[in-house]
Amino acid sequence: MERFLQDTVKRYSVELFSVEGSILEALTELQQRRPELQAVLMGTRRTDPYSRSLTPLCPTDPGWPSYMRVSPLLDWSYHDIWDFLRTLYVPYCVLYDKGYTSLGSMENTSKNPGLRFIDERGVVRYRPAYQLENEEEERNSRK
Fold first, then answer.
1. Which residues contact 115 (CB under 8 A, 6 or more apart)?
2. Other Cβ atoms closer than 10 A to 112
3. pLDDT digits over 50-63, tens only?
4. Cα–Cα distance between 58 and 66 in angstroms, integer?
């Protein structure tokens, strides 16, 4: 994951803030560090927890740092994301090629059992995330 982040910072010339804790804590710290920012780009999709009532452009909830949330992927499906990434050769974290389908913290993320298979030698292996057939199983790898 660290390698992917370093490569992304270099490739796209973005500034990276590393914050321990929740998204609320991260946005609070971001607002303190960069008070001139007015919007945050989110990777939220409709299938993510607490996203049913969101719109592609909406303010953060009461009690959160004040930002306009920009969610261009909100109505994309799991398969839409993978079709886009693979068609346009967009780099992504190598963990997705190792059986992970949803990345959280080290404590709550594991390989997705829906990608598990036993090879011809009897060894347990995992297919890459883009081969997950049932997108409703995406978060089965999170505890």
1. 99, 101, 126, 127, 128, 129, 131, 132
2. 22
3. 888 899 999 999 99
4. 11
